[in-house]
Each structure stands twice: as structure tokens, then as C-alpha cells.
């Protein structure tokens, strides 16, 4: 039975590939697993039907038989545990890949999201200039540490893993700034992820949804 | 072989139990596993020796034979997978517990940390009052959603799990505000976690480290 995920009927990023269903689509493509998509309007996200599946009114969810999951990190981990292609074979390598998954969403992503939220919602506030500079510095600190650890390796720990999938997805959120470009090995790392055929298929699938929403 | 974790020699929260080694200590206590602790000064965190284990210069780390992990969420998951007491027996229940683990650190914790960082570092800035009100509102949105989902249950999904352990640890970071108290079921949930003997042992162990640092 194919799982069903939820995604935005009309993504607020206008098909740039930054909504979190893309992480799950990418994982399913790496694993070679077909899936169905149920599209949701913004209004539907806040309705009791969806809140019963996702208490925070977000996408994506993941339904497979009588199992319902939410949170893209947890869903990617579930897929990685059940199919080849996203975790190394050995238990220690798998535990390290999970370390990178948590690091992506809980160490790297929070200042990156704070930076993005400020640019979206506070650009006209009198404090925008001084405060965005402070947050940029926090983001740079994390990028510099990640860049130092990655060095000249292709991926964070051996072969491509679910840890790289989430880390690259997080770094993509900085695309509209130039911050990642200050660290050439990180920019190359993101490009390496985006060049994977599985990513290309995931990106194309979400873009097709957005384009269809505009054609209506 | 007992694992070795790292912790602050002198915790910046002065023994209040908010440093992230407590999450790992708590998990090890729930699992009934002995562990060793290596204490680190603030200076040591930024030295190459520690950065080789933890690229972001943080605690805790977890060393067990030739395996080194970092990120408290990933470490708690590793412990939960290997010992009874932190995950339900069935695979679907375990996947849902992992959903709550990711939700704790990537949906609930970021606005809570932003709130705490602003109070620590921006209280004298001219924008403090209007902006902290905005961030408090973001925190309240998440607390209200979590409160609605928890309802009158004891734990988030059946028996106590690693998902509750991380969620309660995240909510504790709001202790110096009154935000959790606005949601009586969440306040009771945190108190229920803190009453667990395993939590009490973890809290006492970190407090003893802080008190020893002050006695020197």
C-alpha cells in the first residue's frame, strides 16, 4: 500500500521547493517508493479534520494503513528505516546519520527560520537593520561550524544519508540570501544534493502542483 | 561498557536543570543504565579536541566504544532504541513517539528558545517590549495547540515515552515566564514528568555537579 502525504494546494513559496513536503517527497524518491498526495488549502489546514492528523495545522502528514505521522523529520526517519537508500547498513553509521537529522532541524534550522521570518514579517520595523545583522551573525556561526566539519567531503558522514537530505533542505532556506555562498564547500554540498535524480523528481512534482494551482 | 556523556563543569543555568545533558541523564535513568560524565569548562568547548566530537562546541556528547554521537535528541533516541522504558513495543507506536521527539525540538523548541534568547540578550534594546510580545504570541500559539492535543491525557500518546521526555524538557525552558501556567493541563504534564523518579535522579546529578563547582 502506498502512503499518502499532504501538501499545500498552492505553496506559499510559489513552487520554489521550500515547503516541507519536499523533504518527504525526496526521501520517498530516494527509496524508490510510490506515494499519493492529498492537497490542502490554507483554510483546510486549520479545520478539525486536519488538526486531528496534525495538531499544529501544518503539512506534511504521512498516512500508511492505520499509522499517521507528522513532522517531516520523523517521516523521513520512518522511510529511512523501512527502505534502503537513506541509512548506512551498520548500526553505528545509522545512529550518526540520525545525529545529523536532529542537528539539521534543531541546531541549524532554528536561526535560519528566525532569519527568514524576520525578513518576511519585520522588514519595515525600526529594529530590522540592527537585529537582522545579529541574526545573520548567528546563522554564520553555524554555517562556519558546519563548513569546518564537512571539509572537502561530499556528504556529512560517508555515503549520502537522510542526514544530508535534511541538512541540504535546511540550507536551501537561505537561498534568497547570499549566506551559504560565503562557504563554497556548503554551496557545493547543496548543489550536489539538488543534482540527485531523486531530488529532481521531488522538486518537479511539487512544482507541477503549484503550476496547476495557478492555471485554474 | 557504560557510555560517557559530557556536561558543563559549571552550568550557565546555575543548576536549574535546563542544560541539555539533563535530557540524556533522564533517558539513561529511565532505561536504568549507568553512565560516566566528563565535565567541560566553557573554554574546553571551543577547543579542537571537543570540536572533533561536537562540531558546534556544545554539550552533551555520548561516547560508547567506538561510537560518538551528539545532539541530545539523537542521543535520547539511541538510548530509547536499545533499552526498554522509552518506546512502546509496537512499531507504529514507536514511530509516533519519534514524531513527538522531532516535534518537541523542531516545532515547539525554536520559538521557546527565541523567547529565552531575547530575554537574555535583548532586554535593554529599544525594540524589546514590542518584539517580545510578538514572540510570546508565537509561543502561545504552539502551547495552545499542544494543550488541545494533550487534553486530559497523562502523556502525549499512551504510556510515557521519549517523546514526552523531550517535550517536557522543552516546556521547562519556559519556567521563568508564566506562559506554561496559562495552560493548566500543560503545567500538570510538566509536573508529572518532573515527579518521575528517573527525572529526580537526573536533576540531582546535574545539581551536584553545579554545587561542587561553586564549592571549589
Written account of the structure:
Two copies of one chain form a homodimer. With 216 residues, the first copy, chain A, is an alpha+beta fold. Chain A folds into two domains: 4-85 and 198-215, Glutaredoxin (3-Layer(aba) Sandwich); 91-196, Glutathione S-transferase Yfyf (Class Pi), Chain A, domain 2 (Up-down Bundle). Chain A has helices at 21-30, 42-45, 48-53, 72-82, 91-121, 128-150, 162-172, 184-194, 197-215; strands at residues 4-8, 36-40, 61-64, 67-70. The first copy, chain A, has a four-stranded mixed β-sheet. The two termini of chain A are 31 Å apart. In chain A, 40% of the residues are buried.
CATH fold-level label of the largest domain in chain A: Glutathione S-transferase Yfyf (Class Pi), Chain A, domain 2
Main sheet of chain A? 4 strands, mixed
Question: What form of chain A results from the Cα inertia axes?
Answer: globular
Specify Rg of chain A, calculated over alpha carbons.
Answer: 17 Å
* Element string of chain A (H = helix, E = strand): EHEHHEEHHHHHH
Strand-helix topology:
Two copies of one chain form a homodimer.
Chain A: E1 4-8, H1 21-30, E2 36-40, H2 42-45, H3 48-53, E3 61-64, E4 67-70, H4 72-82, H5 91-121, H6 128-150, H7 162-172, H8 184-194, H9 197-215
Parallel strand pairs in A: 1-2
Antiparallel strand pairs in A: 1-3, 3-4
Helix pairs in contact in A: 1-4, 1-7, 1-9, 5-6, 5-7, 7-8
